[in-house]
């Protein structure tokens, strides 16, 4: 059938001889495209055949044109219409001035070439023999095809079949002889790349020499449709400019040492520019890209990554990086190499121009200087908490253009006074790094304190920030182990290796310097510890001749366990007599004797002191009393009031820690630190008692007087012998209001535990006013009475 069509065409041409007034002198069929070039589904006006026309000055007229697609060089079948090539889409174009590339804008459509293909004939050619189209010298003819929406498999290798002009025919049969094999693909053209940007991790300040800075990230989305071709990114153009004021273009090499586009997930580097390739003038940076292929409906996220220059000349310069316009990103169709449209995604926060985070270049903080202040106490108790060990002043010597520094790790060495290493966990139960107020901000170690060697390593949970030309002060504190056996210790720090510092922006190391290569703290002496507390027992009213008056109860305990044989021993106490104003008084004026009763887990003992003539009463124990951490030792102090005690008031006090005589059993010369029990302070008082009178008279008093609604008035009295006691409250008219007790048999001695609460016998609160409290004591047939006024107020 192919031969028959050619013969018919030749007969047609010979039937109409040309008038030789003008002529085409030659035609040249040229290869177009390349082997393996893809023709995509839905694509239009794909050039598949090209010839150049050479004619005389008068030109000629095209009358007949035919092309064919039979070759099937790759044996996969030739593309046919309408299976692969869209129906009625094979077009013949004329370009008045021939060019290597087909240009639809300047080409003139000559006409559509109908297909001669049928399944039975097998013809696969397109022709038309009724043209009347004038052509001229140096012009060209092009054939284009459209590809179906869902094309079948096939190749396109268009060749000429025949061409006729008024002047005659030209031989184009089977030309070009080896046309490039173009493949039909069901992939549609890529036509749209959408860009969205995200803020990077670049800080408001970066340091000279800093690497791996991310000003912003891009999300590239192939929005060309579900079956579209991949998009290939070929180039990225970025501009460096000021942020404040916005828009002054800067020379990139003044700030940036290198720049790259790197896949956020895989780490693949798609393009990089560095060193001398960074523009030294105010030109943008052009980054050639490769390997960045974006499949249909797929997003690839990539970071822009820069390294800052090491030079400090431009320190203080603020800048941003921008992708100014769609043309700043070059992308094309993977199959056709045609440029695709680039646009900002609708979800992008700004659109073009796209800006990075802003930043300012600072000088790298390369040095921190350290100085030390001795704050360790010369004597420290075993078990003592929050003990200051050393104060460090950390200084950043840079100027206003320098970045802040950070100290992020500390090391301390622990030795005894002779330099012998001490295992840290044997001495400390907790280490903390605090601010000046003692608040733990920077670091803490407890159960992880090193159990070997002598070095304590403290990674700081919050780094110590030191602004340029400024300083920061930190204190290292410790809790002393209650079971330590060390006698003394000191802290040693080598600043250059034990204090780790860095630039706050880049985290690059900063050296630590100090006036001395090694800091050694003063030695601290470790002492045992003891807690002392007092319960006041002194009655508010005392009576001449009163015996066994409870004065105070002293509690002594060691809060620590030192091991067998290493117990704290108490050997005596010293009491001082004072009046209510705190002035010294002679104890002999009030007491005939002072007695102590000692009760401890290990021993019971007592002592009596009667010969004293000053304000000081020293009471030695008959043998030292061991004080342990398992239970307190209780020392009960009582006294006998002199028969002729003068009116006045007195109290006994433990003046200071020195009033308690103690030592450590195994090491008597080792200090023992005595401190007040929780909630108490030295001096510790028995409470003040006032001498009310001789014991032969029935003494009776009330306090407080007056007293308020809702409170109680104490009824205090002294019985010289066992008596039958009645106490009643009367109003001023003599009516009995309340019976406190009646005919109660009470032993001799002082009593202060009877009260009136301002209520009558029916439990009702009486009216405010003055009442009479009457006591009656009967002993050996003899009756004593006493009456006191008592006032109730609102």
Polypeptide structure, described:
This protein is an all-beta fold and 794 residues long. The protein folds into five domains: 2-185, Immunoglobulin-like; 193-362, Immunoglobulin-like, CATH 2.60.40; 367-522, Immunoglobulin-like (Sandwich), CATH 2.60.40; 528-691, Sandwich (Immunoglobulin-like); 696-793, Immunoglobulin-like, CATH 2.60.40. It contains three helices and 60 strands. It has an 18-stranded mixed sheet that branches. Strands 15, 17, 20, 21, 23, 24, 26 and 27 form an eight-stranded mixed sheet that branches. Strands 41, 43, 46, 48, 49, 51 and 52 form a seven-stranded mixed sheet that branches. The protein starts with a helix and ends with a strand. 37% of the residues are buried.
Task: Walk me through the topology.
Layout (H helix, E strand, L loop, with lengths): L1 H13 L9 E7 L7 E3 L5 E10 L4 E9 L22 E5 L12 E5 L12 E4 L4 E3 L3 E7 L9 E2 L2 E7 L2 E3 L11 E4 L6 E8 L5 E3 L5 E10 L8 E11 L14 E8 L5 E6 L10 E4 L4 E2 L4 E10 L9 E6 L5 E5 L7 E4 L9 E2 L3 E4 L4 E7 L5 E3 L5 E9 L9 E11 L8 H4 E7 L5 E6 L9 E12 L4 E10 L7 E6 L1 H4 E5 L5 E6 L4 E2 L3 E13 L4 E4 L4 E9 L10 E11 L12 E9 L4 E6 L6 E12 L5 E9 L7 E6 L5 E5 L7 E5 L7 E2 L3 E6 L4 E5 L3 E2 L4 E7 L3 E8 L5 E11 L2 E8 L12 E11 L2 E12 L1
Parallel strand pairs: 2-13, 14-25, 15-27, 28-38, 29-40, 40-50, 41-52, 54-60
Antiparallel strand pairs: 1-3, 3-9, 4-7, 4-8, 4-11, 5-6, 5-9, 10-13, 11-12, 14-16, 16-22, 17-20, 17-21, 17-23, 17-24, 18-19, 18-22, 23-26, 23-27, 28-30, 30-35, 31-34, 31-36, 31-37, 32-33, 32-35, 36-39, 36-40, 37-38, 40-42, 42-47, 43-46, 43-48, 43-49, 44-45, 44-47, 48-51, 48-52, 53-55, 55-58, ...
């Amino acid at each position: 059938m192919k031969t028959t069509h050619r013969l018919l065409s030749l007969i047609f041409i010979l039937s109409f001889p040309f008038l030789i007034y003008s002529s085409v002198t030659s035609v040249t069929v040229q290869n177009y495209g390349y082997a393996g070039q893809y023709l995509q589904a839905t694509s239009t006006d794909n050039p598949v055949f090209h010839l150049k026309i050479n004619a005389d000055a008068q030109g000629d007229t095209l009358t007949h044109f035919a092309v064919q697609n039979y070759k099937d060089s790759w044996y996969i079948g030739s593309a046919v219409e309408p299976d692969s090539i869209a129906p009625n889409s094979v077009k013949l174009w004329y370009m008045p001035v021939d060019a290597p590339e087909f240009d639809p804008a300047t080409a003139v459509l000559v006409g559509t070439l109908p297909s001669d293909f049928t399944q039975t004939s097998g013809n696969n050619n397109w022709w038309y023999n009724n043209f009347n189209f004038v052509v001229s010298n140096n012009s060209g003819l092009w054939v284009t095809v459209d590809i179906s929406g869902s094309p079948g498999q096939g190749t396109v290798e268009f060749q000429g079949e025949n061409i006729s002009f008024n002047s005659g025919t030209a031989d184009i049969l089977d030309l070009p002889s080896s046309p490039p094999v173009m493949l039909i693909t069901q992939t549609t053209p890529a036509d749209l790349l959408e860009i969205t940007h995200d803020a990077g991790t670049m800080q408001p300040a970066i340091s000279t020499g800093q690497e791996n800075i991310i000003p912003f990230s891009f999300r590239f989305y192939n929005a060309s449709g579900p079956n579209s071709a991949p998009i290939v990114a070929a180039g990225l153009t970025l501009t460096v400019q000021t942020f404040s004021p916005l828009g002054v273009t800067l020379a990139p090499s003044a700030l940036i040492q290198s720049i790259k586009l790197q896949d956020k997930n895989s780490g693949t580097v798609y393009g990089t520019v560095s060193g001398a390739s960074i523009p030294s003038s105010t030109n943008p940076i052009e980054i050639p890209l490769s390997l960045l292929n974006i499949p249909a409906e797929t997003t690839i996220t990539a970071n822009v990554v820069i390294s800052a220059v090491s030079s400090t000349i431009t320190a203080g310069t603020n800048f941003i990086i921008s992708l100014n316009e769609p043309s700043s990103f070059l992308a094309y169709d993977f199959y056709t190499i045609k440029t695709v449209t680039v646009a900002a995604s609708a979800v992008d926060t700004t659109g073009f121009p796209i800006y990075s985070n802003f930043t300012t270049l600072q000088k790298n903080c390369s040095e921190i200087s350290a100085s030390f202040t001795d704050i360790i106490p010369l004597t420290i108790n075993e078990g003592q908490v929050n003990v200051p060990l050393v104060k460090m002043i950390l200084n950043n010597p840079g100027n206003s253009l320098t970045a802040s520094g950070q100290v992020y790790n500390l090391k301390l060495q622990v030795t005894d006074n002779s330099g012998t290493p001490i295992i840290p966990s044997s001495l400390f139960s907790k280490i903390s790094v605090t601010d000046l107020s003692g608040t733990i901000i920077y670091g803490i170690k407890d159960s992880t304190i090193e159990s070997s060697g002598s070095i304590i390593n403290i990674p700081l949970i919050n780094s110590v920030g030191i602004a340029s030309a400024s300083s920061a002060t930190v204190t290292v504190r410790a809790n002393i182990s209650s079971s330590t056996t060390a006698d003394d210790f000191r802290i040693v720090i080598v600043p250059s290796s034990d204090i780790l510092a860095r630039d706050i922006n880049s985290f690059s190391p900063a050296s630590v310097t100090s006036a001395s290569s090694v800091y050694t703290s003063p030695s601290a002496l470790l002492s045992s510890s003891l807690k002392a507390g007092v319960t006041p027992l002194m009655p508010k009213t005392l009576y001449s001749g009163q015996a066994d008056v409870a004065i105070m109860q002293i509690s002594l305990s060691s809060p620590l366990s030192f091991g067998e044989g290493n117990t704290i021993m108490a050997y005596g106490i010293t009491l001082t007599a004072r009046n209510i104003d705190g002035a010294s008084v002679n104890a002999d004026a009030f007491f005939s004797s002072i007695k102590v009763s000692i009760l401890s887990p290990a021993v019971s003992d007592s002592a009596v002191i009667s010969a004293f003539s000053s304000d000081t009463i020293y009471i030695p124990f008959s043998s030292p009393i061991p004080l342990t951490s398992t239970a307190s030792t209780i020392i009960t102090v009582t006294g006998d009031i002199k028969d002729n005690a003068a009116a006045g008031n007195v109290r006994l006090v433990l003046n200071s820690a020195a009033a308690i005589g103690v030592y450590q059993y195994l090491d008597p010369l080792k200090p023992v630190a005595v401190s007040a029990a929780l909630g108490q302070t030295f001096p510790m008082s028995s409470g003040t008692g006032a001498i009310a009178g001789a014991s032969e008279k029935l003494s009776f008093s009330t306090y407080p007087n007056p007293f308020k609604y809702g409170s109680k008035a104490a009824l205090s009295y002294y019985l010289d012998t066992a008596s039958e006691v009645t106490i009643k409250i009367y109003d001023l008219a003599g009516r009995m209001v309340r019976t406190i007790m009646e005919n109660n048999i009470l032993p001799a001695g002082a009593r202060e535990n009877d009260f009136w609460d301002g209520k009558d016998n029916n439990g009702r609160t009486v009216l405010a006013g003055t009442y009479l409290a009457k006591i009656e004591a009967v002993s050996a047939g003899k009756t004593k009475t006493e009456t006191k006024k008592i006032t109730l107020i609102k």
